[in-house]
């Protein structure tokens, strides 16, 4: 297995192109996407400076200085995916990628290496075409000069933005422990060992998803606990705070008020005299005189 230093920029060359051409990954110029191809070697160009970041013990994520810390090497289907040559490499923002962003770098046994990814499997290798473009090829019978890559260290990265990776499964995954030194190969990789490597990669990815879920759950729990502590502290402060009552306000006594006679104006009602009008009544002449009794009890006329 190759050992890469995650704090080093690397130049990538292919046997079919010698060292006159180097692999480049551009800026994300097209809706979060950039191109990958071979161009004339210029190791000071940021598009030719690659970081090989270990995702786990057998899987890597690649990005260039020009693609940025969120622009990862992956593949995309161009025209139709059933025709060889139409699955091509790109650099994309990590939110747009899939399992093709996870690469295995396996030695041929002669000091060179080939690339496979988790989406296409070990039956497809990253290949350099005759026109310096690239694609995934199912013609993997050795020797394949367009599939034989070499790595040369260019210098230290020393950039905090490139010290972590982001994936759709989890964010800001800490830098894995790496060892410095140039890539080394020990023995050719058989189909069986490549399959085992791919299985291990898939298993590790699933493990990461569970770990990420646990981390998210723990974070939510911590936030909830902090919120409860703050609420309890506020309530405690309110209970301890002395209640200040306002000073009583005294109203002036409400005694009955006596009217001032000098201020009272007397009014006399003017009533005009009224004369009663009535008919004169004349007594009847035949009225008998009233007899009064005398001492004898008889009436006297």
UniProtKB/TrEMBL annotation:
Keywords: Membrane, Transmembrane, Transmembrane helix
CDD domains with a match to the protein in the record: beta-trefoil_Ricin-like (cd00161)
Highest taxon of the lineage: Eukaryota
Region listing for Disordered, in residue ranges: 172-208, 280-301
Protein name as it appears in the record: Ricin B lectin domain-containing protein
Regions crossing the membrane: 212-235
InterPro entries per UniProt: Ricin_B-like_lectins
């Amino acid at each position: 297995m190759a050992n890469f230093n995650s704090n080093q920029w690397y130049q990538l060359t292919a046997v079919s192109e010698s060292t006159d051409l180097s692999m480049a990954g551009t800026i994300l110029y097209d809706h979060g996407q950039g191109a990958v191809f071979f161009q004339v070697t210029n190791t000071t160009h940021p598009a030719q400076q690659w970081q090989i970041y270990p995702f786990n013990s057998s899987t890597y994520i690649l990005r260039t200085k020009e693609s940025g810390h969120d622009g990862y090497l992956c593949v995309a289907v161009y025209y139709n995916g059933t025709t060889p040559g139409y699955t091509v490499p790109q650099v994309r923002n990590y939110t747009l990628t899939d399992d093709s962003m996870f690469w295995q770098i396996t030695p041929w046994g002669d000091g060179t290496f080939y690339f496979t990814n988790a989406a296409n499997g070990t039956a497809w290798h990253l290949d350099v075409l005759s026109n310096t473009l690239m694609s995934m090829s199912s013609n993997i019978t050795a020797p394949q000069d367009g599939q034989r890559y070499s790595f040369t260290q260019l210098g230290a990265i020393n950039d905090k933005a490139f010290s972590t990776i982001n994936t759709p499964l989890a964010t800001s995954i800490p830098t894995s422990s790496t060892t410095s030194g140039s890539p080394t190969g020990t023995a050719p990789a058989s189909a069986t060992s490549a399959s085992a490597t791919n299985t291990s990669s898939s298993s590790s990815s699933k493990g990461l998803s569970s770990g990420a879920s646990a981390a998210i759950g723990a974070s939510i729990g911590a936030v909830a606990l902090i919120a409860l502590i703050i609420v309890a502290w506020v309530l405690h402060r309110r209970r301890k705070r002395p209640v200040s009552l306002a000073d009583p306000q005294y109203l002036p006594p409400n005694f009955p008020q006596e009217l001032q006679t000098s201020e009272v104006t007397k009014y006399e009602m003017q009533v005009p005299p009224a004369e009663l009008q009535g008919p004169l009544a004349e007594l009847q002449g035949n009225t008998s005189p009233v007899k009064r009794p005398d001492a004898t009890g008889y009436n006297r006329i």
